[in-house]
Amino acid sequence: MPEEKQSEQSFLLKLVKRFQKTLSSFINTIAEAITSSVHIPEVAIGPIVGALISATTTLVIGFLTISNIFSEQFLYRPLQIQDSNANYTLELDRYRQTILTDYLTQTTQLTLDNPLWKLQQNPYLLRAMTQTVLDEIDGERKRYIIMFLQDTNLLTFNDKVSSPPLLKNANLTEAKLNNLDLSGANFSDTDLTKANFNQANLHKANLHKAKLNNASLTNADLRGVNFTNTDLTMTNFTNACYDQFTLFDDKFDRAKAKMRLISSFDNCPVLSIEKDIKNK
Questions:
Q1: Fewest CB within 10 angstroms: 53, 112, 120, 131, which?
Q2: What is the per-residue pLDDT across 93-103, written as a single tens digit (0 to 9) for each?
Q3: Is the dihedral angle over the CA atoms 128, 133, 134, 136 positive or is it negative?
Q4: Range 11-19 contact pairs with CB under 8 angstroms and sequence separation of 24 or more
Q5: Which of these, 194, 184, 197, 186, lies nearest to 239 by C-alpha position?
Q6: How far apart are CA 78 and CA 25, in angstroms?
Q7: Would the pTM of this model clear 0.85, i.e. be above it?
């Protein structure tokens, strides 16, 4: 950045010098023309030259002022905006990381102070804490929260109707959940718009009434998953595996979605998208 400013200042200095030289030549030409065509008393020559010099100085000062304004608005301003945007991004990243760290610390203490069954039956405090944080962080950090909840068995399917899902109406948009073991996880009523589940293990997970529009589940293990009443608009299921226990709405076309039917006892092998296209 300093080199760019020096280059711009050098350019402006050369421009000013050229402008001064042009004005000086112009004034000399006018003075010669006046003195050669009009008889001017010697007494008046001094004031006339002084007036011309004063006018020249005023023009130069005006030019420098305009140059400074031009430099500030059109040359330096974009650099200032770029620095401001970089600082904003850095501060936002620090803010999100602080929120994530505080959440993990508090929820860890909460799981240590309360038995698992109690948190599953009364998840209201944990649910409020979790959803507040999910609204403030980005997709990569949402990944760490889901990993924590899954590892502590707080996302496993709960058959009790009286116990509301921990992530009901939660904001998991653009969450990076690829390659995670989320078997048995409860994502019912969760907003998973544009989420990445590529190669994730969702065996027996519950996604009833979830929003999966524009989400990606390529090569995901979907054996026994509940997709009833789920928003599957523009969802990418290429090479995803399902079995006879995977539940979809009646109108959903598994073949059109390029899914693979496998046995409930088999694992879901990963296939490259390029290989799949060539085979077709």
A1: 112
A2: 999 999 999 99
A3: positive
A4: 12/67, 12/71, 15/67, 16/60, 16/63, 16/64, 16/67, 19/60, 19/63
A5: 197
A6: 37
A7: no
